[in-house]
Amino acid sequence: MSRKVDLYDSAYGNYESATYRQVRIETYGEDFGQTSWVTTEESNAIPQLLGLRSDSFVLEVGCGSGGYALHLGEKVGCRLIGLDINKPGVRNANQLALARGLASQVRFEQCDASKNLPFDDNTFDAVFSNDVLCHLPGRPAVLVEMFRVLNPGGRMLFSDALVIGGMVTHEEIATRSSIGFYVYSPPGENERLMERAKFRHIRVKDTTESAARIAKQWYHAREKRKEELVAAEGNTNFEGLQRFLSCVHVLTSEKRLLRYLYVASKEPRDHLTP
């Protein structure tokens, strides 16, 4: 059975480290402080998929260290709020916002997104979550909350890298789950839950091959810098993360675990049932 391994505290606590920055660049091609399976191409497509404009008000559920939300703030000019349960990540995100002169436009709050979201109904023009919902218990209620805070006519996007595609052993599940709480989904379950939450115009894209590629690149980028990373996070944690990344690559490249990107919308007000 795999021991629990720290990914997020190490990643956010060492955000400014040149070593961690080089790992991110080598893994993704760009540095947004990522700890996800989002490719650069997907990052570039998200503003269009969400229909973002300079006057949009956007919520990110699971913002991590805030790099991508700040990128959107700079690129699109929209206002954003990012939520994350990880305190070092939120602290780093707000420090980055201040350093980039974006604190009045983009802000970050520590929040358990598996609970009720701390916003009024119909607040945001878009809501998105990159590889985060699989970490949250009570996904049906989370989707209902995302729908509630979304403006009529607004769009929602999330990705799930834990859709079961084939047979997975208990050892593989333990290794794949070693960095935290996880929920695995059967094919079609996310679509069913989105429809039940009243989302419409659901679109689904299979991004499994991209996740496999990122896992492989992340593994090799870390392996090249083993000495520096062991000094920062300890040998046990380094080896645990390498096992995790290797497991992700095997499961996704063999299509036994799948990653899907989901986009949906909330009907405009004149289409909503009273």
UniProtKB/TrEMBL annotation:
Q: Which UniProt keywords apply?
A: Methyltransferase, Transferase
Q: Give the matching InterPro entries.
A: Erg6_SMT_methyltransf, Methyltransf_11, SAM-dependent_MTases_sf
Q: Does the keyword Methyltransferase apply?
A: yes
Residue ranges of the Methyltransferase type domain? Answer: 59-158
Q: Does the keyword Transport apply?
A: no
- Which GO MF terms does the UniProt record name? S-adenosylmethionine-dependent methyltransferase activity
Task: Kindly give the SUPFAM superfamilies that the UniProt entry links to this protein.
Answer: S-adenosyl-L-methionine-dependent methyltransferases (SSF53335)
Taxonomically, the superkingdom here is: Bacteria
Per the record, the GO terms for biological process are: methylation
The protein in question is named Methyltransferase family protein
Q: Which organism is it from?
A: Edaphobacter modestus
